[in-house]
Automatic annotation (TrEMBL):
GO cellular component assignments: SAGA complex; transcription factor TFIID complex
Protein name, per record: Transcription initiation factor TFIID subunit 12 domain-containing protein
GO biological process, one term: RNA polymerase II preinitiation complex assembly
Classification lineage: Eukaryota, Viridiplantae, Streptophyta, Embryophyta, Tracheophyta
Pfam families: TFIID_20kDa (PF03847)
Organism: Oryza glumipatula
Range of residues in the leader sequence: none
Compartment(s): Nucleus
Length: 167
């Protein structure tokens, strides 16, 4: 998974980052040298459901999404390697971006050092339940505390002498 930063793939990713799409098509050798072909998409769909057919627009959209994903991962991973002041792109660079940005774990690669720093995902519904529980516990403790305080006040209060005088 080691690749020098001045290789054609990295140069292509940096050209995409700078917005120079024409040079990417020239570097890639035109549209015939795409990352994912329509044939491979047909094979993937046939694995799921052999009778399923895709519209040509859907095929093109899937190819574009796959290429954008790979370009995004490559660009970000190269910038991470550059940030580490390394001239070699390592698996941990790709893993970090895939796990943090896309929530994708790659089997066979150890991302243990990445997972140590990952924030736990808390569901909004779970968060609301926790706040309701905290509120109910606080109101119960306040009610118990005020009831105990009222009972203590009653015990400590001395009865007032009856009023002497008639109305």
């Amino acid at each position: 998974m080691a690749q020098k930063l001045d290789s054609p793939a990295v140069l292509k990713a940096t050209n995409v980052q700078s917005g120079d799409m024409a040079s990417v098509d020239v570097d890639a050798g035109g549209s015939g040298n795409r990352l994912l072909s329509k044939r491979s998409i047909h094979e993937l769909v046939a694995q799921i459901d052999p009778s399923e057919k895709l519209d040509p627009e859907v095929e093109d959209a899937l190819i574009d999404i796959a290429e954008d994903f790979v370009e995004s991962v490559a660009t970000f991973a190269c910038s991470l390697a550059k940030h580490r002041k390394s001239s070699i792109l390592e698996a941990k660079d790709v893993l970090l971006h895939a796990e943090r940005s896309w929530n994708i774990t790659l089997p066979g690669f150890s991302g243990d050092e990445i997972k140590l720093y990952k924030k736990p995902h808390v569901n909004d519904i779970h968060r609301e339940r926790l706040t309701l529980i905290k509120k109910s516990m606080a109101s119960e403790s306040n009610a118990k505390g005020s009831a105990a305080q009222a009972a203590a006040n009653q015990k400590n209060q001395t009865p007032k002498p009856p009023a002497t005088g008639s109305p």
